[in-house]
Sequence to fold (710 residues):
Amino acid sequence: MAKPIILSIDAMGGDAGPDMVIPGAALAVERRPDLRFLIYGDTSVIAPLIKAHPRLEAACELIHTDVVVRMDDKPSQALRAGRWKSSMWKAIEAVKTGQAMACVSAGNTGALMAMSRFCLRGLGDVQRPAIAAIWPTTRGESIVLDVGATVGADARQLVDFAVMGAAMASAVFDLERPKVGLLNVGVEEIKGVEQVKDAAKMLRAANLPGLDYAGFVEGDDIGRGTVDVVVTEGFAGNIALKTAEGTAKQIAQYLRQAMTRSLLAKLGYILARSAFDRLREKMDPRKVNGGVFLGLNGIVIKSHGGTDAEGFASAVELGYDMVVNDLMAKIAQGISNYHRAGGSLDLAVAEAGED
Amino acid sequence: MAKPIILSIDAMGGDAGPDMVIPGAALAVERRPDLRFLIYGDTSVIAPLIKAHPRLEAACELIHTDVVVRMDDKPSQALRAGRWKSSMWKAIEAVKTGQAMACVSAGNTGALMAMSRFCLRGLGDVQRPAIAAIWPTTRGESIVLDVGATVGADARQLVDFAVMGAAMASAVFDLERPKVGLLNVGVEEIKGVEQVKDAAKMLRAANLPGLDYAGFVEGDDIGRGTVDVVVTEGFAGNIALKTAEGTAKQIAQYLRQAMTRSLLAKLGYILARSAFDRLREKMDPRKVNGGVFLGLNGIVIKSHGGTDAEGFASAVELGYDMVVNDLMAKIAQGISNYHRAGGSLDLAVAEAGED
Fold:
């Protein structure tokens, strides 16, 4: 039998906590029988829930923790109250010590990122971590990063994001040389996007083996799937992600209203039921649940806090895929390629190369 | 008879140029009979087109210009080649001289903004102009600004945007005290959004009569219509706008695919046809075509370059509404209220007021 894939789970995270996390983990292990879990949380709550899932029970080890990071804790509060001892911390720490191959939590993003940075530290030359999201497109799926780890990024950091995003795309989508675009605004010559332009020069000059730099893309290119990886800083990335989610919900509501307005529409809806089901499935945010923290010494997957068991299972399976496809090694390789090829490549060099 | 509303039209702008602009203007004057136009462009092309629309012909004056600003001209090129003499410049200048009450162009955004700034200059204390878009929401419509006039904005500039956006909301939506939100990311305590936090303090401290400051909003609040006016800097605003457009197109494509996949789905589609038509109408980007340049000594409406006659007519009608509802006076009033009430309000004062 193949080596099992061991993930650490923060059972106390998410709006519904263990009531959502445990059934989610159970779903994942049914679909990926080689999964094993280290589950951290309040055993008095969790143990009875696990009893209902014999397969999960056989595949997990339960570790008691007293402290819970709340969904509205600020990162600094969470660190103060939860470091060394909360379920969130312990789950991250299991990745650091090598007991787990990746960590999954539906806890609050700010706290999870702060603890992950503190515990796992930055990977090699990477200055800043990023959160990468998988984004459904008309062509399939793309990766967008950073969707909210930090605000602002200089050219060097954007290049790091590009390299890490490409590594993730090669791991998840099995691409040799993923197409990478830098998110920009269409208007030429407006001020303030110097860092994006500089990153473009650096990527073009570096001409990396694992990354096909495809130029600037705009907001509407994301859903079109123009590139495999869309790179931006965390403020714009987070706003793009949330805006797309909001627009999808808005259109779903328009559609519901339209389809219940007349008898004919209702009848049409019933006949086209399976088509609507397929549409709903395509638009199901649970299917692409899970932001991946990149740029740390270990993989941490952030599940949506408000998701259900099915959504949490998706996040767990995303973690599983990352491990199986050797994401960490691919990122390390990409970063090292960049720093070898581009070497001490700085912008002056890149600009000289442009001429 | 009421005083006519006179708009200046750049007939040479847009991907299709006069072939789209002239029928668009004709549509608008049919729906708003008190419209009058000053139409700038190549008369040898335009005059024959106008002949086909007697009502438009009776309502317009045609002014010949030789120079055309191309859709891919950079702003600096456009200024160099087109200042004083292009159809775009002349249409803007008509607002400056008071011959027209507002200007409408489907020409390229960067050039139109550069010329508008150069010709009309900034309004009073407003440091930077913004482009405001009307955004359809599940509750109706909201205004989002800046969607791409400039990149980056400090706290003071964000407050200007808030005041101008509120004035526009009161003009367009007929609201006494529009709710205004600052676009932000959900994660607490992350760095780099100081200007957004500072703007929040300043808006709260100023407590303006024409603006109900409602706090931070996130990307998904835009489509939800949580506030009447969403304020952000131009990079994030442009990306939000384009991302929403891309998502809407993406879902429309999913829907088309789903509805043509099986016989039953096709039959259902036919029965629910009117519901789909209503949905299409709701999602029709032409209905909300037109970005309004705020913060200049005059109103300039930017129509989407790729729109059709119907879309251009919407942009013209938006300009009409702005004039009829006295947008310029409302903005001037809002800005003056702010500088009187908040007076020389700076952040130190705002912060003292917070304690």
